[in-house]
């Protein structure tokens, strides 16, 4: 590695540095601050590479699959090597910053959930022939979670006119008569617990840009995402905790963010054909580009970092509560509603399926392992099941 880097440009050295740091992510090894000089870079790359090799060997010995191996890094390497000269001068483009953040967030969440569940995630690194790749981390038939997914994707290429048409309703300036070059990076999480007293949770944060064909720079860009809670049984203290945690993250940046994005979430995650919300909401936003990208990126990071403190305490509180067969059956019926929303109304699912090279397993990761539909089912009046239905009919101010 040392001999190789001795004859490489600084830009390629940065790429190898990314691979080395990605390898050490599994053991949370901090490679230290970047060294600005060429000699310093070579020394740091060598040290990081050696540390990464030890980490990789450790993973193989213990049977733990690295979250980010060299296959994944190679899949994304082409995007890195196409960065503008700004990266060479010491600054970092937003697409690379977002990629690094979601990769670190994925690792942190996977470790925390594995500790909670006691079972390891299956780590599936994949590439997209049209450009880019991703890592899907799936836990199935665990001790706490029936199915949990923590996925990231970093893709680029050309959007077909069908996908551009879907965006044109929100971006009038788009030319929908021709394909568009794009870049997208995002993290998507859905967790379906065994215990019906533990709520299902969803989180997604993403960065998207349309690129100029000549320069490769961002012509249009925006952030989107959010987090929401879908309980089968209603516990008011859980709703309050979840929303207050999200509100705290929003308030660091703008006191108007939480009420604005909470209202947006209530409106978006709504089953129009059922006249009920999918869950008790959270926050949701899209096409966010009203402020400098760096400011909004800081906001996205605070929202993403709020996921574990917003959800894990609820799981720990209720994961060992005893439940009946009837309560499990009700959970399956509520999951049926979840499936209906994702397949009929969710804009992200539709967009993903229209993107060339769409990875169906990743797009449909959000669906539960099991669900149920019963003809004309109606809960007993005054029952716990009726309570949650009443809650879902009208949004409340939980925070």
Automatic annotation (TrEMBL):
CC annotations in GO: cytoplasm
GO molecular-function terms, A-Z: coproporphyrinogen oxidase activity
InterPro entries, alphabetized: Coprogen_oxidase_aer, Coprogen_oxidase_aer_sf, Coprogen_oxidase_CS
Alphabetically ordered keywords of this record: Heme biosynthesis, Oxidoreductase, Porphyrin biosynthesis
Keyword Oxidoreductase: yes
EC annotation from Swiss-Prot or TrEMBL: 1.3.3.3
Biological or metabolic pathway of the protein: Porphyrin-containing compound metabolism; protoporphyrin-IX biosynthesis; protoporphyrinogen-IX from coproporphyrinogen-III (O2 route): step 1/1
GO biological process, one term: protoporphyrinogen IX biosynthetic process
Gene3D superfamilies reported in the protein's UniProt record: Coproporphyrinogen III oxidase, aerobic
Oligomer status and interactors: Homodimer.
Family label: Belongs to the aerobic coproporphyrinogen-III oxidase family.
Name of the protein in its database record: coproporphyrinogen oxidase
Species classification: Eukaryota, Fungi, Fungi incertae sedis, Mucoromycota, Glomeromycotina
